[in-house]
Design a protein that fits this description.
12% helix; 33% strand; mainly beta
């Protein structure tokens, strides 16, 4: 490694020397000066920039702006670089009171429609930020208002955990599920806390949670599993289950293999979506090799397994029963 570094340094030095030899007549442009009045404005590291809002939520978001100088009152300018359909109302300035290090920048979007994603990008006016400081002076984000509709019945069968552990398969349980429709015709299904602890099982052998978890297994009880649907294809963005089987392994995690691992849809097929005669969701089936599974300790070193057992979601008891009978043949 020392030899590589040595020759790399020699090559780099030679390049700099050659550049200098060819640029005798070029005058280097001086670095911009920072005006004494510069407040050193930046966006706080604690800000969140992408929002999914319920239709009833306030149609505004607030970003925290900070400054290096705190003496005296001050105003810093804000430039808008992106504003989808000019839906965002962005103040031209942010004002600080004497001694104040932080101030609020509130963006309003009263005309944002449900189901449409709107993007924004902002930066501070030159002279109000210090380009030599390692601070965030440019940000971008998005807002979408989503109307979630409840799904009366949702029966989930996990095929990911059995990829890593020798647990029984199949095991099915009821989950709290919702869906949202978007203007482009796509859908999104959301499972709320899908890997909760099982307390009961009904006469069909369907649990009300995952039977191998107990209260100590749950790390995050508010996990939301997302399934994006376009036509008859479904994709699960990678997510953490919010639970573990062995605490030393860390949280379980998984999602669609396509897009995470090198390969095509033939290698890692997307989920198959079926609709009933009325056009409503009937089922989502992620077949063999569609999903991956891992745990934090393995993921940290770049390891994961491809699920050979299907993961399914049925929106009626009848559909679930038919699938179980067909799978048993």
């Amino acid at each position: 490694m020392k030899t590589i570094n040595k020759y790399f340094l020699l090559a780099l030095t030679g390049g700099l020397l050659a550049f200098s030899a060819c640029s005798d007549d070029i005058e280097r442009e001086s670095s911009p000066l920072v005006p004494e009045s510069c407040q050193g404005a930046s966006f706080s590291a604690a800000n969140k920039y992408d929002y999914e809002l319920e239709p009833e939520a306030a149609m505004e978001l607030t970003l925290t702006v900070t400054r290096e100088k705190t003496d005296g009152t001050a105003t810093v300018g804000v430039e808008v670089l992106d504003n989808t359909e000019n839906v965002f109302e962005v103040p031209a300035t942010v004002s600080f009171a004497d001694g104040e290090k932080e101030a609020a920048l509130t963006l309003k979007f009263p005309n944002a429609e449900i189901g449409t994603s709107y993007n924004y990008a902002l930066k501070f006016v030159e002279g109000d930020y210090n380009p030599y400081l390692d601070k965030t002076v440019y940000v971008s984000g998005s807002v979408i208002r989503i109307k979630w509709n409840p799904l009366e019945t949702a029966i989930y069968t996990d095929g990911m955990i059995s990829t890593l552990y020798g647990v029984d398969y199949p095991l099915s349980w009821y989950v709290n599920a919702e869906y949202a429709s978007f203007p482009d015709g796509s859908l999104r299904v959301r499972l709320n806390s899908p890997y909760c602890v099982a307390e009961n099982v009904d006469d069909n052998g369907i649990y009300d949670g995952y039977p191998y978890f107990d209260s100590e297994s749950i790390v995050n009880p508010n996990v939301k599993m997302q399934i994006d649907i376009t036509g008859k294809e479904a994709h699960i963005p990678a997510f953490k289950f919010g639970a573990f089987l062995n605490s030393s392994d860390g949280q379980l995690l998984g999602g669609s293999a396509y897009g995470v691992f090198k390969g095509t849809k033939d290698d890692f097929p997307l989920g198959e979506v079926a609709y009933d005669k009325e056009g409503k969701l009937a089922s989502i089936v992620f077949g063999p090799n569609s999903l991956f599974a891992s745990i934090e300790s393995l993921w940290a070193v770049g390891k994961a397994g491809i699920a050979t057992n299907p993961t399914t979601l049925f929106f009626s008891l009848e559909g679930w029963e038919e699938y179980q009978e067909a799978s048993a043949e």
